[in-house]
Amino acid sequence: MTDAACLPLTNAMRSLQLALDHLDAKAARRTGLARNDLRCVHLLVSEGQASPKRIMGQLALTSGSVTTLVDRLEALGWVKRSPDPADRRGVRVCATAKAKREITQIYAEFEAVLAKLAQRMGEPRTGAAAKQLDDLARVVSWAVVRD
Questions:
Q1: Strand pairing report for 49-50 and 87-95
Q2: In sequence order, what DSSP letters do the residues of 95-125 get, joined into one string?
Q3: Which end of the chain is more exposed for a tag (fewer CB within 10 A), N or C?
């Protein structure tokens, strides 16, 4: 496939990225959180909990930056730390009920529209679209790791 043949896919991916960036910027403004803070809260809401090392890897931050970020979010009541039951020296970071409630509320309208789209598309097409988006995310991650 030529570069010209990939252009529509590249443009569509950039368009999606820009739209998601705008959505996240709106959410950050509504919550009063910085973008990386919001990204961390999203990670914790979706995964339930994470180690600081996982947060560091997912957000591409340094260890010191993650510590400062988690300190800030904990002071604001968005996250809490707890001992890692599998590692007595480790820590787990969890989203609080406040964080879960706020994130759910902020994205509720978007998710409702997405649910309508999924219903209109039907299960097979929705599953295929989700797989394609996952494949594209892996390609982008691969490109990042290569550097």
A1: antiparallel
A2: E-HHHHHHHHHHHHHHHHHHHHHHHHH-HHH
A3: C
